[in-house]
Amino acid sequence: MADRQEIVSRVTAALEGKPSPVAIHNARKVDARGEQSGYWIVSDANGVIVAAGTGERSFAEACTEAGIDSESEAVLDAAGGILAPGYVDIHAHGAWEKSFDDGPDGIDVARAGHAVHGTTRQVLSLITNPLDVICRNIRMVRDKMASGRPDILGCHLEGPFLALARKGAHDPNCLKDPVPQIVDQILEASGADSQHGKRGCIRQITIAPELPHGLSAISQFAAAGVVPAVGHCDADYETAKAGFDAGAGIMTHMFNAMNGLHHRKPGPIPAAVEDPRVTIELINDGFHVQNPMVKLGFGFAPHRIAFVTDAMAATDCPDGAYKLGALDVNVVDGHARLVSNGAIAGSTLLLEGAVSRAVNELGISPVAAVEAATLTPAKAFGFDKPNEVTGAPIGLLAPGYAADFNLIDPAGWKVEQVWCAGRKIK
Length: 426
Prior knowledge:
Cofactor: a divalent metal cation
Number of domains: 2
CATH superfamily of the largest domain: Metal-dependent hydrolases
Binding site for substrate: 169, 256-257, 264, 288, 344-346
Largest sheet: 8 strands, mixed
Binding site for Zn(2+): 158, 232, 253
Number of helices: 12
Protein name: N-acetylglucosamine-6-phosphate deacetylase
Keywords: Carbohydrate metabolism, Hydrolase, Metal-binding
């Protein structure tokens, strides 16, 4: 672990440091707008893209205008490698033996584990816990964001407002009905202040809409600027549709921890698929959702599928014994299950792997695969436009967007170099 500790220190220092100008040329650009060979991109000292295009002459001119010496270390020849926007994971719990619930140091470790594989921005998912612990962990994320790191987008609460029948690996003793007083307590911990228009650090919260106060809680969170997500539910079609109409804008990991498709009991999935306002999470590891259903999902909702990892502490680690909150987990062949009942306990997936297998195993186009890991998750929170969290928009390789870059090996789609807001991570 000595090497990893060194990596964590280096990545953390980079993310807490200042951006530098970056100029990359001779790349194969892949983003949601398409593919382009001979592509170049230039960003400034604020970590924002100032110019992009094709042709070496115009690249040299752009470097000069940005004050970048063409012979400096800021200039990189991609040698035909793939240049994609940094990946955005809106649902992950940890990596490298740490969870995002494990305090500031745990966040540093788990973020480094994802960052070196190209996940430049992340919503930190917090597991179901006693309410006081959840609120403590929310405040921890809030404090971490206040330190100025650009990579932490906020937190996602996966619980405690989940259906008991669809709880998955969440502690049943901590599940609750989202009565208004508890919602207020959670929003207060996030720093939300409706009187002054302050949104707080919670980006997303998964809610089973069929709970007694499920729909009212969705409305309450949405009014506070949080994007509620329908998931871990046993809702029928009508109730799920009511949840989206009440303000839910995401479906938490479609197909997992919910009633499935049935021709006489449609359930929540068609309600999400038919609603253009809804971003649909999908875990593309071949285990949570098998390949035919991943491809079906892309056909269902083009441009609305967001790859997520639901990654837990064992991500990028050997098989063995781990924890998910207070619950014991055993990982065998990379698959995490609760020791108590064998329930799937999150994944050990990285977005790097989700994109790679989409292209190389499923035959999904590189543009669609990259879109599912970049622009689509950014859109779920309005981060594809200028906003108070990321400043410059994220999700595309274009002037005005943040300097979030992944330089990728075209053969295996392995991420080789990474920048977040102009900060070199790998």
